[in-house]
């Protein structure tokens, strides 16, 4: 059984691991644990179980797999397979020129803070007062700048969504953190230059896209604004090395990994996973075996410290957690 997308509920894991002896999960990103405001209500034990017990860990980028490896132990029998979504723009839309091309700047994202839609839109609206801007994911409870039209992500029909790309002068994808980057492919499919943050992920994707000459990286919002004030990038037909028919390639990668996992599956391994699942289902029993409440808190803080130490620049927070750990461990 294969799940596309991260598991967030115990019921999801039960459905997977109680149904099939071979389980593959396509982890699309690690944003839920890496963005602090999202991690506050996230039960990390679900992902720890998944990484240690799934048959195949699929990711849609090497960038995402590297983030997982830094933060979580992965089971010794878990196969790890990077399978990028298609990087052929032709797989996302057919280019259809229209008279309304170049009518607006499209800022694409959603309501989550790390998408950085509001700050980017406000900066562009101020710097380019005569330029119409369409913002996907701008907050609904605040007053819009005069030259901005906003839409809620997920509430846009397919034809309207395509027209936003098709009729744009440029597309701006300001997100600070992604696992892949579908807006890049949608922009290129409609032959629109796209501006993205300079990140390891975006560099990884660009290396496989034939139209990557139209991907323009920037580091700060100030740099983005200055570049668009000076000149809007124009589409170029320059072709670089990249793939065609990427969905076919990805399907073959997934099939091959699942076939390998099925060939390696055995009864003792399945039994071990089911025992681990039973422990996950009955945390009270497991907690009782861990000793006093202070010891349980201490062990949890210990895991937090380990996690912090794997994040660059987090040493001060780790030291604070260590002091708390020592105080409750006494």
3D architecture notes:
With 330 residues, this protein is of the alpha/beta class. It folds into 3 domains: 2-84 and 249-289, no CATH class; 89-244, Glycogen Phosphorylase B (Rossmann fold), CATH 3.40.50; 292-330. It has 15 helices and 10 strands. β1 (2-4), α1 (10-17) and β2 (24-27) form a beta-alpha-beta unit.
Features:
single chain, alpha/beta, 330 residues, six-stranded parallel sheet
Mind telling me the C-alpha Rg? 23 Å
Quantity of strands, as a count: 10
**Going across the major beta sheet, what is the strand order?**
7-6-5-8-9-10
> Mind telling me which CATH architecture of the largest domain this is?
3-Layer(aba) Sandwich
- How many individual domains? 3
Low-confidence stretches: 284-288
**Name of the CATH homologous superfamily of the largest domain:** Glycogen Phosphorylase B
Order of helices and strands: EHEHHHEHEEHEEHEHEHEHHHHHH
Gross morphology: globular
Kindly name the structural category.
alpha/beta
The residue fraction in helices comes out at 40-55%
Mean pLDDT over the residues:
89
Report the sheet-strand fraction. 5-15%
What separation lies between the terminal Cα atoms?
46 Å
How many DSSP helices?
A: 15
Instruction: Characterize the biggest β-sheet.
Output: 6 strands, parallel
| CATH class designation of the largest domain | Alpha Beta
Q: Predict the CATH topology of the largest domain.
A: Rossmann fold
